[in-house]
Write a structure and sequence with these properties.
Blueprint (H helix, E strand, L loop, with lengths): L6 E4 L18 H13 L4 E3 L7 H6 L7 E5 L10 H18 L4 E6 L10 H14 L2 E7 L3 H8 L6 E5 L6 H4 L2 H7 L3 E5 L22 H13 L4 H10 L6 E5 L3 H11 L15 H4 L8
Parallel strand pairs: 1-2, 1-8, 2-3, 3-4, 4-5, 5-6, 6-7, 7-8
Helix pairs in contact: 3-4
Length: 294
């Protein structure tokens, strides 16, 4: 019997209008309350937020977060060298995150931008995060990454408790090159994000922006594969990542209570999806930060 323990909620849509296929804008605080109540009732406990997600932390903080594992992230440090001022900023930002969340502690704190650790003095930020963990206000510290190169570089600086990374039926880079297995063998908790590629994987083919024309044949094959295997696009996308043995948490963003309930049902469909031949290893299409849609 499949459960929802492996499902986590990304909350960026609760603080910002976000996502390629977002039809509803920013989620209302009342809807957030309803989603959280339903999530806890069904065993979903991981909430992923960040200081950079607009009002997300503050909206979460108006609710009881007892029973949830809340993970937040650091601000961005726009510098080529980490200074003592940056270390102070990290601590201050985290303190403000706790205040907004109305919490005394959180489950996780992630470095939002991995490259902040990879400049001279980056270890100072690791030390600051480790000090927060030592003081008991954070249970686990970690990093958010985009690719294997960042993972390898970060592991030379420190061993994270949690690594959040992108993976989907199109973005299989860290699965196929063995990175996921290597990370898991290090005892790291793996949280998968971008399983829908900001909604690209769920869009009808005639609605997909022309930017993706070079991979339109691949996207067409993806639609056909889901249909051939008797699954909806959401079911196929979720089950593929859910069934990767190295993945601990699959993060999804929902904008409405109906979306959450539908996603919950799809997550527990006892079917596996064969994504053979659907991998796209071109970062300009699988890394939303590189998309040029304007």
């Amino acid at each position: 019997m499949l459960t929802l323990k492996k499902l986590g909620l990304g909350t960026v849509q609760w603080g910002l209008q976000y996502g390629l296929a977002n039809q509803y804008g920013k989620t209302s605080p009342q809807t957030v309350k309803e989603i959280l109540s339903d999530a806890l009732e069904h065993g979903v406990t991981v909430l992923d937020t960040a200081s950079l997600y607009g009002e997300s932390e503050a909206v979460l903080g108006t609710n009881s977060l007892e029973g949830f594992h809340v993970i937040t992230k650091t601000p961005r440090f726009a510098t080529n060298k980490v200074t003592d001022e940056d270390v102070f900023q990290l601590s201050q930002s985290f303190s403000q995150s706790l205040q907004r969340l109305s919490s005394k502690k959180v489950y996780g704190l992630l470095m939002h931008h991995a490259n902040d650790l990879l400049v001279p003095g980056g270890k100072k930020l690791v030390s600051a995060m480790a000090a927060l963990k030592e003081s008991g206000v954070v249970e686990k510290i970690g990093i958010s990454v985009y690719d294997s190169e960042q993972v390898d570089a970060v592991l030379k600086v420190f061993k994270p408790d949690i690594i959040q990374l992108p993976i989907s039926v199109l973005d299989q880079r860290m699965l196929l090159n063995g990175e996921l297995e290597r990370i898991k063998n290090e005892g790291v908790e793996i949280h998968a994000r971008s399983v829908f590629l900001q909604g690209l994987l769920l869009m009808s083919l005639d609605k997909i922006p022309s930017y993706f024309d070079p991979i339109r044949p691949l996207l067409t094959r993806w639609h056909s594969a889901a249909e051939t295997q008797g699954m909806s696009l959401i079911q196929a996308a979720l089950s593929f990542v859910r069934d990767i043995p190295y993945v601990d948490i699959v993060l999804v963003g929902v904008e409405t209570l109906e979306q959450f309930r539908s996603c919950s049902e799809d997550f527990t469909v006892p079917k596996t999806f064969d994504a053979s031949g659907l991998a796209c290893n071109e970062p300009s299409y699988v890394n939303p930060a590189l998309w040029k849609l304007a």
